[in-house]
């Protein structure tokens, strides 16, 4: 057949009195029209006569433009300013142009029928003898189906990506718009089983995420606000007066939609409002009024309004609400739950329908990777591909043939184009935007717009612009720290080499390369030549493909104004594959475990040889055990690497760090949903995981405090306690409390729950990191801060008065050595003065707490939490009473002299006097509650008596065997209480 004739039908009608609202579509269609004309097609564009100057502006030849006069069209309508497109969209099935029967009695049915007839007559007259085979339209066009019943009518609309910096894509649907479209029809497939297309979609997600993570974050202001809330919801603004919005919902405007969401969303959700970029109508006064009424409302900052803020925020929020929007498609693409607020193409795949779904139990979208692959590669046309000479002509001819032979059946069965070319086109704009924003990377592929990050690095903050000296390109640092952004491959070891040199006027510098708080490489840089910082990054370090390293110099002391101490020679940055460091393989990355058990250790071979084999025998499959060895000197590294168990992951920080940093290292690399760490002299109980799962399924707790058995190892330094158990009382009651209440009470407690008996959800750990500047375990203060902060940020806390761990007391335990003397941990690499915080040599503690750093940790936690949950009062008098009692206990045991105790108390009294005098009564419970619960336990266990077991392993076996029936989770009962008396502090 001859080349098909093609018509671009640009809506010649007014819509809500906005006469030129459609003129932007002429610019969108012009490149397609021109390329089709170059390929030999007879192509026309039909517009209202007032749009003629616009067609010339966008480069459409005059002979290709057909105009409709106002006399022929607008003045003959019953209402020239009616929502004509909404009227037609609601009343007619675009595929057949038949009127919808259920609207037969509608009051506006006569207007709909008359409008269709008027438009059909006007189109006939305007086109004269031009009979198109293919019609592209942005609006409902049942009159076109009447005039051209055999034509392929393609309804065009922006698709899954539609605004910078994302690639521009469109859909061409032969059925219609929104609830008429192919994706909205349950009878039509909207998924693919082609594995190559699915794999390409997953790669596309990863590459797009990486490309935009590498840019400076333009949304830090919003990030800072939403991290104070339990969840975040993005409400997508729509274009008021558009039939896409008006015909798909009952809201009068995007503001009414927002108010309805705010009225129904939980108050502990941050509700972010993104206005449509073409319809930003909320005034500052309106935003302030809404904010006053709904404190959880977060408007988009004015500086971000011109950007595609909705699409850029889609990955950063927890869920999305929309009526009809490409951002709704973004929700599907990034796997975010979507709440459909109207009736459109989104509803078929959304997690919930209407505002009522906001408070329903959390559900995932019905959308799958197979659906995402279909939408991205079968239904989305990259604009750059359609503009490619020859491609669109061939493609439309193929689609016309299919339409004439089979209609809509199987129309979207195959990808629009070759998957590799599609993927390249979808990435093209992102790469260009990235390069425009950050400049050309180092070592990028010779193909300009290929997203190949081999040997690539970008300059982040802290660098001046690039300069050249002959063939050498370099940059000066402008501050003490300068950031490098490296797209490193996740799951691989890499070797990074960076060449640095000093300014000619500097005597020299000490340069460091850091990842977070970890020093990866350090080198002195002199005037005699450049130095190379070489770092081997193991795959355990690369947890984010947009890895940000910092080059750090000494204090900036430039020789002259404007000079800086380091220069980076850009041509000498290399990133190459490296042989993996000795390590046990982690659990397969595609299947994150439900539970992670973490063990930070230093010189722990003696205890690990006892507990680790037994621990691995107690855990079920799918539980991850992460051991982080802090560069031990007793063969620990060799021992744990020799254990052949796929559930075991072995880590090592780049250098020896303090206990808190080593524990934080383990948390950073663990992948489980529920996480908790042990000492290397502790042992878990097998029932631990069932207890956690039961509590998680019966509450919204994100933090679980359980009980423990405490066992003194046979070689314990106090021989009278060796091979004994501490007294304990257990019950089957689980008490559920609000996190902020728990945090306020914990601030005034001298201790925190034993580490092995505390379990946290990984989302809570993430929020703690955000609140504490990137760390979960606060340096030096460790869990004494992080557990308190976690409680304050958690949705709920559960207290389970049932043991899930055997806590070991060994000579090398940090807690043990603090109660002994400052030198007790020296043989095990624990420096109490430097790493723990004792300020009184010979005592192991100071006036402000049973633990030397406990009071300092309480102050740090209160400072972190107060802006988020309100006042966390410190009861200084309570601290003084507790410490005086503890001092008396230490004197009675002969560990310090009465004179020393008196001196410590006098110093403490002086330090606390002003604070005690100024403190006011707290409206909240504070202090250390005491349990009043029915007891059950061990008749065999008498505190201070030796037991019939000779190891921590036997203690665990004995308890599980004797009390297995009472450990059944079915016996747990739950009680909600804000003021319950709970013994959650170990005495």
TrEMBL record:
Name recorded for this polypeptide: Glycosyltransferase family 2 protein
Positions in coiled-coil regions: none
The organism of origin for this protein: Methylobacterium komagatae
Superkingdom of source: Bacteria
Short name of any one Pfam family annotated for the protein: Glycos_transf_2
Domain Glycosyltransferase 2-like: 596-715
Gene3D superfamilies for this protein: Glycogen Phosphorylase B, Spore Coat Polysaccharide Biosynthesis Protein SpsA, Chain A
């Amino acid at each position: 057949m001859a080349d098909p004739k093609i018509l671009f039908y640009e809506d010649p009608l007014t819509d809500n009195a906005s006469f030129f609202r459609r003129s932007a579509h002429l610019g969108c269609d012009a490149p397609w029209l021109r390329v089709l004309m170059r390929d030999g097609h007879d192509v026309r564009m039909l517009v209202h006569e007032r749009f003629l100057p616009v067609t010339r502006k966008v480069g459409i030849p005059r002979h290709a433009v057909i105009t409709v006069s106002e006399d022929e069209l607008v003045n003959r309508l019953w209402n020239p300013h009616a929502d004509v497109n909404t009227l037609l969209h609601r009343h007619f099935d675009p595929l057949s142009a038949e009127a919808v029967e259920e609207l037969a009695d509608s009051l506006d049915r006569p207007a709909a029928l008359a409008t269709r007839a008027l438009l059909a007559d006007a189109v006939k007259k305007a086109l004269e003898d031009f009979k198109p085979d293919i019609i592209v339209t942005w609006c409902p066009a049942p009159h076109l189906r009447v005039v051209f019943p055999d034509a392929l009518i393609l309804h065009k609309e922006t698709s899954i990506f539609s605004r910078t910096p994302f690639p521009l894509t469109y859909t061409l649907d032969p059925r219609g718009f929104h609830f008429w479209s192919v994706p909205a029809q349950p009878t039509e497939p909207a998924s693919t089983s082609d594995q190559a297309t699915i794999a390409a979609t997953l790669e596309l997600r990863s590459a797009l995420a990486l490309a935009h993570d590498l840019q400076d974050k333009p949304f830090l202001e919003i990030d800072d606000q939403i991290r104070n809330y339990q969840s975040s919801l993005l409400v997508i603004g729509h274009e008021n007066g558009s039939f896409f919005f008006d015909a798909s919902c009952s809201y009068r405007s995007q503001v009414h939609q927002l108010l309805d969401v705010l009225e129904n969303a939980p108050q502990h959700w941050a509700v972010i409002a993104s206005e449509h970029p073409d319809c930003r109508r909320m005034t500052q006064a309106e935003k302030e009024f809404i904010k006053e009424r709904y404190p959880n409302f977060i408007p988009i900052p004015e500086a971000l309004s011109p950007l595609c803020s909705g699409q850029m925020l889609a990955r950063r929020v927890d869920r999305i609400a929309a009526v009809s929007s490409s951002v709704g498609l973004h929700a599907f693409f990034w796997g975010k739950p979507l709440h459909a607020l109207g009736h459109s193409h989104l509803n078929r795949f959304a997690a919930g329908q209407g505002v009522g779904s906001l408070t329903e139990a959390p559900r995932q979208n019905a959308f799958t990777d197979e659906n995402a692959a279909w939408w991205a590669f079968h239904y989305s046309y990259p604009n750059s591909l359609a503009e490619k000479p020859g491609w669109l002509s061939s493609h439309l001819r193929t689609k016309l043939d299919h339409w004439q032979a089979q209609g809509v059946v199987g129309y979207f069965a195959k990808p629009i184009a070759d998957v590799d070319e599609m993927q390249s086109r979808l990435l093209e704009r992102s790469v260009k935007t990235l390069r425009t924003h950050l400049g050309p990377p180092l070592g990028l592929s010779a193909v300009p717009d290929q997203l190949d990050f081999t040997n690539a690095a970008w300059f982040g903050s802290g660098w001046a612009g690039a300069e050249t000296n002959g063939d050498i390109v370099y940059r000066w640092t402008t501050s003490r720290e300068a950031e490098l952004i490296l797209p490193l491959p996740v799951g691989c070891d890499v070797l990074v080499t960076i060449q640095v040199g000093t300014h000619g006027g500097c005597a020299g510098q000490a340069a460091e390369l850091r990842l977070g708080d970890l020093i990866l490489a350090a080198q002195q840089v002199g005037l005699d030549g450049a130095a190379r910082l070489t770092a081997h990054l193991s795959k355990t370090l690369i947890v984010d493909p947009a890895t940000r390293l910092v080059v750090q110099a000494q204090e900036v002391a430039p020789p002259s104004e404007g000079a800086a101490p380091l220069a980076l020679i850009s041509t000498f940055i290399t990133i190459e594959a490296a042989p993996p460091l000795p390590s046990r393989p982690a659990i397969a990355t595609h299947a994150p475990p439900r539970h992670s058990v973490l063990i930070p250790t230093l010189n722990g071979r003696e205890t690990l040889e006892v507990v680790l084999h037994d621990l691995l025998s107690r855990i079920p499959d799918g539980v991850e055990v992460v051991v982080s060895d802090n560069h031990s000197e007793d063969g620990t590294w060799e021992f744990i690497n020799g254990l052949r168990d796929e559930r075991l992951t072995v880590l090592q920080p780049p250098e020896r760090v303090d206990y808190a940093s080593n524990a934080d290292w383990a948390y950073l690399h663990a992948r489980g949903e529920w996480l908790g760490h042990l000492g290397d002299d502790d042992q878990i109980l097998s029932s631990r995981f069932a207890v956690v799962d039961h509590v998680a399924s019966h509450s919204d707790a994100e933090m679980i405090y359980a009980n423990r058995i405490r066992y003194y190892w046979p070689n314990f330094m106090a021989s009278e306690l060796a091979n004994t158990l501490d007294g304990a009382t257990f019950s089957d009651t689980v008490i559920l409390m609000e996190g902020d209440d728990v945090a306020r009470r914990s601030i005034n407690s001298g201790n925190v729950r034993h580490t092995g008996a505390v379990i946290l959800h990984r989302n809570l750990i993430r929020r703690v990191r955000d609140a504490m500047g990137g760390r979960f375990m606060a340096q030096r203060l460790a869990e004494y801060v992080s557990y308190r902060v976690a409680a304050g940020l958690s949705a709920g806390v559960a207290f389970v008065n049932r043991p899930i761990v055997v806590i070991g007391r060994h000579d090398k335990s940090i807690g043990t050595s603090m109660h002994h003397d400052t030198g007790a941990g020296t043989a095990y690499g624990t420096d109490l003065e430097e790493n723990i915080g004792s300020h009184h040599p010979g005592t192991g503690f100071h006036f402000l707490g049973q633990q030397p750093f406990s009071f300092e940790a309480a102050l740090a936690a209160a400072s972190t939490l107060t802006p988020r949950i309100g006042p966390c009062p410190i009861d200084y008098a309570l601290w003084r009473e507790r410490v005086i009692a503890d001092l008396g206990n230490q004197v009675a045991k002969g560990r310090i002299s009465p004179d020393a105790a008196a001196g410590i108390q006098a110093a403490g009294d002086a330090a606390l006097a002003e604070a005690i005098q100024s403190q006011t009564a707290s409206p909240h419970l504070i202090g250390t509650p005491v349990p009043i619960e029915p007891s059950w336990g061990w008749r065999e266990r008498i505190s201070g008596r030796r037991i019939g077991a000779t190891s921590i392993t036997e203690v665990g076996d004995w308890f599980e065997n004797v009390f297995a029936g009472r450990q059944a989770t079915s016996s747990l009962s739950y009680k909600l209480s804000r003021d319950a008396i709970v013994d959650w502090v170990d005495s």
